[in-house]
Specification:
The complex is a heterodimer of chains A (249) and B (308). By secondary structure, chain A is α/β, with parallel strands linked by helices. Chain A has one domain (2-220): Rossmann fold (3-Layer(aba) Sandwich), CATH 3.40.50. Chain A has helices spanning 37-51, 69-77, 94-108, 127-135, 188-194, 235-245; strands at 2-6, 9-11, 33-35, 57-64, 82-87, 112-116, 139-149, 152-159, 162-169, 172-176, 199-203, 215-221, 230-232. Chain A has a nine-stranded mixed sheet with strand order 9-8-7-10-6-1-4-5-11, sandwiched between helices. Chain A has a two-stranded antiparallel ribbon with strand order 2-3. In chain A, strand 8 (152-159) and strand 9 (162-169) form a beta hairpin. The longest helix of chain A has 15 residues, at 37-51. The N and C termini of chain A lie far apart (57 Å). Chain B has helices at 17-28, 42-49, 70-81, 93-106, 210-219, 227-231, 262-265, 297-307; strands at 2-6, 31-38, 54-61, 86-90, 110-114, 116-119, 122-127, 132-138, 143-147, 163-165, 175-182, 195-199, 222-225, 252-256, 273-278, 291-294. In chain B, a hairpin with a 2-residue loop joins strand 6 (116-119) and strand 7 (122-127). Chain B folds into two domains: 2-165, HUPs (Rossmann fold, 3-Layer(aba) Sandwich); 190-307, TPP-binding domain (Rossmann fold, 3-Layer(aba) Sandwich). Chain B is of the alpha/beta class and 308 residues long. The chains are: A alpha/beta (249), B alpha/beta (308). Chains A and B meet through helix 3, helix 4, strand 7, strand 8 and strand 9 of A and helix 3, helix 4, strand 5, strand 7 and strand 8 of B. Strand 9 (162-169) of chain A pairs antiparallel with strand 11 of chain B, so a sheet runs across the interface. Bound molecules: flavin-adenine dinucleotide and adenosine monophosphate (AMP). Flavin-adenine dinucleotide (FAD) sits between chains B (200-202, 226-229, 240-245, 257-259, 261, 263-264, 267, 278-280, 283, 296-298) and A (13, 37, 120). The site of adenosine monophosphate has 23 residues of chain A, from helix 1, strand 4, helix 3, strand 6 and helix 4.
């Protein structure tokens, strides 16, 4: 069984971003970049399935300019077998990403595609569901548990009211939530080994997908800042303020 | 222009979010139709018909929609929604699950998690965990939109819109419901509560959340948690507040033993009044708190429960 894992290069989750002075976007110059955390969880799940003998090959793909090869190499160091960079300089929306991925799914015919549930930069939470729709695959989003049994997969999903389990025919699309696993760290020998694993570069233009987006970003503003509050000295003072000043209890 | 609003419910009750979605839809302009898809959901349709501003309710009552499976719901919404200008659903786990499928099948973008409507084609949404606010304009013929309900005020419920049945049945063979474990609670829902009290890693274990329960009972508050508390198994996943959990904006948010990571702040910093209780006076949560109390939560919580 072959697993395809799309990974995104995104700002490191610890970095507090700043909006550019001209409100055209977010200042990413010199910002630390990493694999989007949810994609890391996706790589971990695929690698675990391989270690358990369920999967035979784990292929990672990232769409972006040359710099995303760094994240592909990281995924290879975590245990993926080979990488694909779909090369483009354009800023793509989830729909265009999903269309490119659906073409890649036609070429690679994976039995399972595991994506992150959400990019922590765009906060879109769309690509996996769109890919599933475009390829006609069933989907198990926000997964906290994945059980593969022959040609079916049971996915436990984190939903607003608790947990829901669905059963899907393979091939299927899964998107990861935080509790699915705890990603490992890449060891130094594995980082060295990853340098020799195959990494194919495919120009996005060769996929026959219209890469233009109908959504324009007009401006990006900083959020409204909260006024710093006060420290209170005792529970009594807190309760008094909540009752008489803020009037919320 | 017409807007199709997807009503969220559990086949027993309509979610309060719907009246907030209608408020967002009103700002998009045009007639508002509500789609109720579910199983044995006639009562839900009646409740939706009462919401002010609704011109018509369409109800698709079929077993296929009982568990809101994305494959089935998306096909239904595409069939009923293809002549609308806007299709709107809540940015809940249900909306997030099926709406991107709708968008892809219609070959349009989805605008996720909007917090404002500037005009029928221009919307405001947070990115980077709310550290930047983007204004985006869509030239797509159909705008597929999920709405952060907490950012809109609910409209009134004094209407009696006509209800119409749809007999469209969409079932996918490839996906089926197995079971669900829903958290039972007498307390108000997190996203709807006026007061939320949340615990973090500082609570140390699940039993200690009872210290929050006593206070929550007195204040009719909902109980939330940080990711660290959920990951450690103190409380179930549906209590997580934050960038990738639930977004809340209550009148009062009390953060207990929570450091205030940006991912947590993303889920609660629009609360009207924020209280932080933490033993570390340098904890970042104090930068957004209106009232900060430095101290050990195991001393403070019992005293707080007694004094309210
Ligand atoms: C992709 C991604 C998504 C994430 N999404 C979310 C999300 O949606 N929601 C979320 O919350 N987090 C999220 N996080 C995690 C986030 O980065 C933080 O790790 C998390 O919020 C920390 O939780 P905490 O504040 O409970 O724990 P800690 O940061 O460990 O803080 C515990 C606090 O408790 C205080 N404390 C300890 N003992 C006591 C005591 N006896 N009395 C008083 N105070 C005490 C400490 O001083 C400390 O400030 C996400 C992270 C990533 C990478
Ligand atoms: N440029 C990209 N390259 C590869 N995978 C991506 C890319 N963008 C998004 N994805 C995948 O889609 C998931 C969800 O992203 P999003 O829909 O943008 O929130 C991510 O976690 C990735 O698995």
């Amino acid at each position: 069984m072959k697993i395809l894992v799309p990974v995104k290069r995104a700002i490191d989750y610890n970095v507090k971003v700043r909006v550019k002075a001209d409100y055209s976007g977010v200042d990413l110059a010199n910002a630390k970049m990493a694999i989007n955390p949810f994609c890391e969880i996706a790589v971990e799940e695929a690698v675990k399935l391989k270690e358990q003998g369920v999967a035979t090959e784990v292929v990672v793909v990232s769409i972006g300019d040359k710099s995303c090869q760094e994240q592909i190499r990281t995924a290879l160091a975590l245990g993926a077998d080979r990488g694909i960079q779909i090369d483009t300089d354009e800023k793509l929306d989830s729909l265009q990403i999903a269309k490119l991925l659906s073409k890649l799914v036609e070429k690679e015919s994976p039995d399972l595609v595991i994506l992150g549930k959400q990019s922590i930069d765009s906060d879109n939470n769309q690509t996996g569901q769109m890919l599933a729709a475009l390829t006609g695959m069933p989907q198990g989003t926000f997964a906290s548990k994945v059980d593969i049994d022959d040609n079916k997969v049971k996915v436990t999903r984190e939903i607003d009211g608790g947990l829901q389990t669905v059963q899907l025919d393979l091939p299927a699309v899964i998107t990861t939530d935080l509790r699915l696993n705890e990603p490992r760290y890449a060891s130094l020998p594995n980082i060295m080994k990853a340098k020799r694993k195959p990494l194919d570069v495919m120009p996005a233009a060769d996929f026959g997908v219209d890469l233009s987006s109908k959504v324009k970003v007009l401006k990006v503003n900083p959020p409204a800042q909260r006024e710093g509050g006060v420290k209170v000295d005792s529970v009594a003072e807190l309760v008094d303020k909540l009752k008489n000043e803020a009037k919320v209890i | 222009m017409t807007v199709l609003v997807y009503a969220e419910h559990d086949n027993n009750a309509l979610k309060g979010d719907t009246a907030k979605l209608i408020s967002a839809a009103t700002q998009m302009g045009g007639d508002i139709h509500v789609l109720v898809a579910g199983s044995d959901c006639a009562g839900i349709a009646e409740a939706a018909a009462k919401i002010d501003g609704v011109a018509k309710v369409v109800v698709a009552d079929n077993e296929a929609y009982g568990h809101q499976l994305a494959e089935n719901i998306a096909e239904l919404v595409v069939e009923l929604g293809k002549d609308y200008d806007h299709i709107v659903a809540s940015a809940s786990t249900t909306g997030k699950n099926f709406m991107p499928r709708v968008a892809a099948l219609l070959d349009v973008a989805q605008i996720s998690d909007i917090i404002g409507v500037e005009s029928p084609d221009t919307f405001v949404r947070p990115i980077y965990a709310g550290n930047a606010i983007a204004t985006v304009q869509s030239e797509d013929t159909i705008k597929v939109i999920t709405v952060r309900a907490a950012s809109f005020d609910a409209v009134g419920q004094d209407n009696s819109a006509p209800v119409e049945a749809s007999d469209a049945v969409k079932t996918s063979e490839k996906s089926s419901f197995v079971d669900e474990q829903l958290t039972e609670s007498e307390r108000p829902e997190l996203s709807a509560a006026d007061i939320v009290i949340s615990g973090g890693r500082g609570m140390q274990n699940g039993e200690n959340f009872s210290l929050l329960e006593g206070i929550a009972d007195k204040l009719a508050a909902a109980i939330g948690a940080s990711r660290a508390a959920v990951d450690a198994g103190f409380v179930p996943n549906d209590m997580q507040v934050g960038q990738t959990g639930k977004i809340v904006a209550p009148q009062l948010y009390i953060a207990v033993g929570i450091s205030g990571a940006i991912q947590h702040l993303a889920g609660m910093k629009d609360s009207k009044v924020i209280v932080a209780i933490n033993k570390d006076e340098e904890a970042p949560i104090f930068q957004v708190a209106d009232y900060g109390l430095v101290g050990d939560l195991f001393d403070i919580l019992p005293e707080l429960e007694k004094s309210i």
